[in-house]
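Repro:
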Amino acid sequence: QVQLVESGGGLVQAGGSRTLLCEISSRALVNVMGWYRQSPGKQRELVASMTRDGDIIYDDFVKGRFTIFEEKEENNLYLRMNKVTPEDTAVYYCNVKSTLGIESWGQGTQVTVSS
């Protein structure tokens, strides 16, 4: 199973920026990579995802503010968050789905946006 380790979370002021990192143990069978988030009392929701062919989708609430990108040589996946608002406060999770249909999750990293 693919191991994922997120980092980069923390406290950020509204209007500011933050970049999250997901270290992926192996990309050999990875088909889709993505970032999800979960706020207290809410279900986990998709933020952005990227296929191995480079197709990207964003949820409407982050479109134009967040960017998902990868660094293939380092097996790293990033989420660049710009113009954050208090509504972006959540635990952010890295997720990958393999070509075999196996799904893996990281432990999550907390992002807190202060107003």
